[in-house]
Design brief:
The structure holds 2 protein chains of 2 kinds.
Chain A lengths: L2 H21 L16 H23 L2 H4 L10
Helix pairs in contact in A: 1-2
Chain B lengths: L2 H19 L8 H6 L6 H9 L5 H14 L5 H26 L5 H9 L2 H33 L6 H19 L1 H31 L2 H11 L13 H14 L4 H8 L5 H13 L3 H14 L9 H9 L2 H38 L5 H26 L3 H13 L2 H6 L9 H21 L12 H4 L3 H35 L5
Helix pairs in contact in B: 1-8, 1-9, 1-16, 3-9, 3-13, 4-14, 5-11, 5-13, 6-7, 7-8, 7-16, 7-17, 7-18, 7-20, 8-9, 8-16, 8-17, 9-10, 9-14, 9-16, 10-14, 11-18, 12-16, 14-15, 16-17, 18-20, 18-22, 20-22
The chains are: A mainly alpha, B mainly alpha.
Amino acid sequence: MSQTSRRYLHVSLACVPFVMMLVLTPFMNRTTPYVLGLPFLLFWIVLSVVMTSVCMFVVYQTDPANRDDADATTQVQS
Amino acid sequence: MNGAMIVLILAFVATLALGVFARRGKQMDLEGWSVGSRGFGSLIVFLLLAGEIYTTFTFLGASGWAYAHGGAAYYILCYGALAYVISYWLAPAIWRYGTSKKLLTQPDWFISKYNNRLIGAVVAVIGIVAMVPYLELQLKGLGIIVEETSYGKIPSTLAIWVGALALTAYVVISGIHAAATNAIVKDVLVLIVVVGIGLYLPLHHSGSIDAMFHSVQNGHPGMLALSPGSYNTGWFISSIVLSSLGFFMWPHYFGAVYSSKNPRTFRRNAMLLPLYQLVLLFVFFIGFTALLVVPGLADGDMSLLAVARAELPSWIVGVVGAAGMFCALVPGAMLLTTCGTVIAKNVVQEVSPGAPPARIAIAAKICVPVVALVALFLLFQGGSAIVNLLLLGYAFVTQLLPSMLMTLRRNNPITAAGATAGMVVGAAVVAWLTISTSSASDVLGVLPPALQHINVGVVALVINIVVMIVVSLVTTSQNDTDATAERATVASPAG
């Protein structure tokens, strides 16, 4: 993956939680249907938080910085 | 003496011992005291940064908000997650520069980046003004928690004094290490308590989470979503924006970042912490169940403690109180350490530049009881205005953000004068809007309803940015003219 395309990937992934929480929330502001026992808005917020972690996981895995720093630490990442 | 009191006293002895013995085998110069000699591993840094998730404000506040305002409480889940996304890039940048320049405080960052000492003093003052109410809130929360969970046997005033004394003692002795050791116990305890009673209460009372939510919806239609009114979607979104931006501008956040051994920790935290803070979901469950079990409380913030007392045996109430106690003391220790360092390094050293490092380290420790006493004084003077003071503090520290972000650019077009003017004007606008009106709606009456409840901090932030840019443009062109004039007279080529 080239540096530019990786940059685009990272920026778009980082935008996902912002769009979900700040842009889409007004459209999800309803109590029904209940999903997993949660009122719909709360489910949407929980989903957004989980997606935040998923997006940041992909960013972390594809970021070469996390390999470069490995030299400076005692940790070994396979 | 009941079961709860025994548990509370044991927890208090434990926190004091952990705090005091934390210094063993540690270097205790100013760098060791304030940022742990920059040697903290992933777990401690994770917990110090996660410390922001569980303060007394979230412990009592998240359940209290769910109890009193329903869906509006969900914003607490959002701002942390967004803040951690930003932290993926921001925290390593702060760490890298801070470590290479041996910075200890947030004002140090501004002094070094803008090459100007006045801006450091301004940042120090804004930071301290914001941190003292935060500390006050932790102490007030501690008092409430201990009084309630001891079934009134330990009065709140006594708990606050004893808590403040213990806090002062172990911060003077161990500095940031006191917060670090206590942070481990705190998070284990809070996880067990919150998940445990967050599942037990709704299951015990309603049979299932689903049924609990349906009962709430039947009793209070629309409460589980955002309703029109003060806490509408406009308020929700602006509060998330403001809180996630302010998140990093707390002075003690910089201390926690500088204390890390390596920057990779922050990137890993950025993916783990959003999931970790989902534990707050269980705090919401507690707040909503409280609405069914103990309706009609005058103060929503008491809902978690009230429902625990109503439904749980005495010794478990004690464990809840112990968890709450740690929630107050860990951030309290972090705040006191940071206040001490900032005052010693950015105020005392400015006044007497020749002071040897050892004397600055002593000054930092002397500041600790002083700050604690100021917080206690304000606490016993103030009363219920504290939550407002905290929101004021949040809006205050957010004013540091624009000029902070600009320093991350390779060529920063903002001048020290511009940055200083922006943050001073921003802070003044926050203070004025907060004192004169409870929200910005009077000033912004012309805007559509959804935008009326926009947080005062966001308004001040916009004014801050405008002032910052304008003053920078003026001072830059002045500097350019000066430089040109200088070049003309000296006739030497620009370096």
